[in-house]
Amino acid sequence: MNLLPAWLRSYRPAWLAGDLTAGVIVTVMLIPQSLAYALLAGLPPEVGLYASILPIVAYALLGSSMTLAVGPVAVASLMTASALQPLAAAGSAEYVTLAIQLSLISGVMLLAFGALRLGFLAHFLSHPVISGFITGSAVLIAVGQLKYILGVKVAGSDVLETLVGLAKALPQTTPVTLAIGGASLLFLLLARRYLAPLLTRLGVPAKAADLMAKLAPMAAVIVSTAVVWLFKLNETAGVSVVGSVPQGLPQLTLALPGVSTLGQLWLPALLITLIGFVESVSVAQSLALKRQQRIQPNRELLGLGAANVASALSGGYPVTGGFARSVVNFAAGAHTPLAGVISAALMALVIAALTGLFYYLPYAVLAATIIVAVTSLIDLKTLKEAWHYDRADALSLLATAMGVVALGVEAGILMGVALSLAALVWRSSHPHMAVVGRVPGTEHFRNVERHAVQTVPGLLALRVDESLFFANATVLEDRVEALLAHDPSVRRVLLICSAVNQIDATALGVLTQLERSLASRGIEFTLAEVKGPVMDRLRSTELGQRLQGKVFLSVHEAFEHAVQVGN
Amino acid sequence: MNLLPAWLRSYRPAWLAGDLTAGVIVTVMLIPQSLAYALLAGLPPEVGLYASILPIVAYALLGSSMTLAVGPVAVASLMTASALQPLAAAGSAEYVTLAIQLSLISGVMLLAFGALRLGFLAHFLSHPVISGFITGSAVLIAVGQLKYILGVKVAGSDVLETLVGLAKALPQTTPVTLAIGGASLLFLLLARRYLAPLLTRLGVPAKAADLMAKLAPMAAVIVSTAVVWLFKLNETAGVSVVGSVPQGLPQLTLALPGVSTLGQLWLPALLITLIGFVESVSVAQSLALKRQQRIQPNRELLGLGAANVASALSGGYPVTGGFARSVVNFAAGAHTPLAGVISAALMALVIAALTGLFYYLPYAVLAATIIVAVTSLIDLKTLKEAWHYDRADALSLLATAMGVVALGVEAGILMGVALSLAALVWRSSHPHMAVVGRVPGTEHFRNVERHAVQTVPGLLALRVDESLFFANATVLEDRVEALLAHDPSVRRVLLICSAVNQIDATALGVLTQLERSLASRGIEFTLAEVKGPVMDRLRSTELGQRLQGKVFLSVHEAFEHAVQVGN
C-alpha cells in the first residue's frame, strides 16, 4: 500500500478536471521548451523530449510537492553545456553519453544526500549568491543564443569572445533567419507584456487570459514552422531547422560512467545538484505555501534524485523543477502530480508519433523562446533590495553574477560559495560581546555602552552572545585581556554564558588557559547562567574542577556576591 | 625613535646577564638543530645555518614576543620537503632556490595577512586539527629519519612505502652507523628523562640541571664527531658525514619566483604560513602569559613575515617560532629579543669561521636528534582529553593525524581544515531554539522543556539563540511550521530575538515570506527584544512595515499583550 504515493491513495475525483487541464497546458509549454533547452545544452532535440517523460513520473512517485513541474530547465541546461563542452564535441554521441552520465551522477548524489539527510547543505547557497548566479547565467544564455537569431556560426567560450565573434559575423547574417528570429522575439516579448491584458479586454476571463499568454511560444513555433514549410525556407533561404528527430519512445539503458569520467564530472554534477535542488525547493515551497501545504526537503532530494536517475535511464539529461512551468501548472489548477503524469503521457505520445512535425521548426524561434524565458530570470529587484538592506550581500550578488559572466558558470558559482563561506567564517570569528551592568532597581542586565546601568567596582561582567568554539575562543580571550589592560582595578571576571550552547575542545582549552593566567594574577574567573548541557560536560574537566563554587545561576546572584565580598 | 623596538628603547642593564646566558645556551641548541632540520628539509646543512641568523634579527625588530626563538623548526622543514620533493631533486641548486622562494612567498603572505589584519584566519585551525597534524607529522618525520640511523638508502613517499623499504634494506645496514645512531638515540632518550634529575642529585641547582639536560644533543654531536674524526670512520666504515660546509656569511640576494613557480608554491606556502603562525603564536602566548605580557597577533604576523623575507634574502628557508628553543630561551632567563640577537651573532661567527668543525659530524646523530625532538611532539594527552570531552573533536584529531601519515602533510592539513569548516557549517545551520514560557511569578522566561513554566494558549513563543542568516534561516522557518503543525490552535507566533545580532538579506527574505504565509492563515507574527541595530535596519524593509505595532520591547510585554487580547 505504502508504495503508492499519498496523493494517489487519497485521490478525489473532483481534482481530475484541474489536473487534466494543467497537464495539457504544461505539455504545450513543455514541447518548445524541451527542444529549446536541449539546444542550449548542446544536445540533439530528442534528448530534451526524453528528459520530459520518465523524470516527471519518477518525481510524481517520490517528491513532496503537489505542483512542481520537473524536466529540462534553462540554468541546468547551461551548466550541462558548460560541463561537457570541454570534454566532447556538442551533439556527438560521446557528448550525449556524457550528458546521460552527468544526469545519473547528479541523481545518485541527490539520492545520497536525501538518504544522509544532507538537505541542509543547500542552505549554504545564500539568496544573494543564488540570485547573482541566476542573473549571470541568464545573461550568458541570452548572449549565447543571439547567433541563432542572426543565423551565423560563432564559437566563443565567454561572453566577451561571443560578442566580438557576433560583431565580426554580422555581415554573414542570414536575412530570412533574422526576420523569423526577430519577429518571434518581438512577438514573445510583446505577448509576455500585453497579451493577457489584451485578451482580458476582449472578454476572456483574467485567469484564462494569463494562461493563454503563456502559450505564446507554442503559437510562435506553429506559425514559424508553417511558414518555413510553406516556402521551404530551409532550402531556399538557408534557415536552419531542427530537421528529422528520431521517432519512438526512448530505450531504457544504463550507461555507467568509468572512473576517469567520474573524475571529470563529479564537480559539475555536484554544482548542478545543489543549484537544481535549491531552485526547485524554493519554487516548490513558494507554491506549497499558497495552499498551506508543506515541502519536505529530504523528500525533495529523493524525488529529484529519482527523476535524474530516470532521465539517465531513458536517454535524457539533468532535470530539475522549473519556475515557469510550475507556476503555470499551479495556476492552471493542478492539484496533484497526476497533472505531471498526464503531461508525461502526452509527451510520450508526441515522441512516439509526432516528431515529424518538428522538421521545419527553425532554430531561431527556439532561440527566441530561450532568450525571452531567461530575461525574466534577470533579477535586479533582489540586487536593489540587498543594496539598501545589506551592502555586503549586494556585493556578493554582484561578484557572483560578474563571476559567472566573466569566468563561466562553475567558477562563478564556486566563487559565490566561497564568498558565502568567507562570510560565515568572518561572522563566526566575530561573536557579539557586551560588558553589562544592572538596570537600576531591576534584575535585568544590559550593555553598559547602550544603557544607563550600574556596575560593581572590580567586577568585569562580559556577556558573549554565541557558542564558544575554535573560530572565536581566542577572540573572547583577547577581548578579556584588552578589557583588563584598560581597567587594571578588575579583580573578578564574570563570563555570562546565557547564549553559549556549546563549548568545544579548543574553546575549553582557551578558557582553561585564561582561568589559570587570571588566577596567577590574582583575578578570579567566574561564570553565570551556564546552560545545563554545557555545565554537565564542563564538570568533569580541569576547568570545571577549578571553577567549583564560582558558577552562579544568574547574573543577579553573581552581582550580589560581588557586592558582598567587595574587592 | 619609533623605528627602534620598544624593548630596545627601554632596555635595562639588569636584563643583560639573562639575555646573554640565554643567547649562548640557545645557540648551543640551535647549531645541531639547524643542521638537522636542513637535512629533514632535504637541504644542504649551510641553508639551516643561514636560516638561523638574519630571521632572528628581523623578528627581534618587529615581533611582539620577548622570548620566542625563531628559526628552522621540524614541522615547517617537513612541509618544505613535502612541497619541494615533487618539483626538484633534494639538495640540488634548483631545490635550494625553490626553498628560498617558498620562504619569500610565505614571508610576503605573513606580511600581507598582518597588513590586512587577517590574523583571525588562523583561528580556523582548531586545536584538535593542529594537534592531529603535529602528531601525524612527528610520526612521518621519525619514520623518515630511520634510514640515517641504519645507514641505508631508502626512497619512499609515504610511511608504509618507507617502512617496507627499510625492512627490505635491513641487510644492507652499516653496522658502525647503526652503532653511532643507536647509541646517540639511546643517550638522547635517557638524557631527556634522567639527566636533569641525575645532575640535581649531583648537587647542580634544579634550573641549571634542566638547562644542561637540553644541551645533550650538542654533547652527542661533539662526542660522535670526535669519534668519527679519530678513527676516520667515514672512510674506514662507510659512516655518512656532513662533509665540507661552505664557510662564510650568506650572500644577500633576491630570488623572485616566476609565475609558474608561484602557481606551484602558493598552496604549500599558505599551509606553512598558517601552521607556522598558529604554532608560533601559541608558543609565544603561553610564555608571555607566564610573565603577564601580551602577544599581538598582527604584530606576530609582521615579525614572522619579516623573518621569512630575511631568511629568503640570506639564502635560508621557511622559519617560524619553535617550541623547544623558545622554552629554553625563556627558562635560561631571556628578557628581551636581545637574547636572540646574541644567538644570531654567535651563529654568524660559527658560519664565518667554524664550519670545518662539522666535517666529521655523522648524519646518524642528526637523525637521532630529530627523532628525539619530534617524539616529544606526539601528543596523546590532547587526544585523550578530547575523547572524554567531545567525541567529534577527538575524531577530527584522529582523522587529521591519519590523513597526514597516509596521504602526506598537505592533504592531511587540508582534510583537517575541511573537517573544521564542515563542523562550522553544521553548527551554523543548527541554531539552538527553544519554546519558552513564563517562570510563575516572575518576568523570566525559560525553555518549556526544561522548566515548569506558564504558557498562554494560542501563543507560540520561540527564542532563537543565534543571528539569523543564510545558513540557518530556513531551519527557523521549518521549526515554526513544524510547531504550528503540531499545535493548530496557535494564533500568534512570537519570535524572541534577544540573541539575534544580525539578520542578513537571505534571512530577511525567509522571515518576510514566513510572515506573509502566516498572515494568510490568520496567524499573527510578532517579535520581541529586537536589538537596536537590527531594528534600525528592519524598519525600512517590507517586513518592518508589516510588523508595525507588532514588535514588543520585552517578552513580558508580549505575553501581557497576548493575555489581554486573548485569542
TrEMBL record, chains A, B:
Indicate whether Phosphoprotein appears among the record's keywords.
no
Q: Which Gene3D superfamilies match?
A: STAS domain (3.30.750.24)
Q: Does the keyword Membrane apply?
A: yes
Keyword tags? Membrane, Transmembrane, Transmembrane helix
Source organism, top-level taxon: Bacteria
A Gene Ontology BP annotation from the UniProt entry = transmembrane transport
Q: Which residues form the STAS domain?
A: 449-562
Protein name from the UniProt record = Sodium-independent anion transporter
Native organism is Polaromonas eurypsychrophila
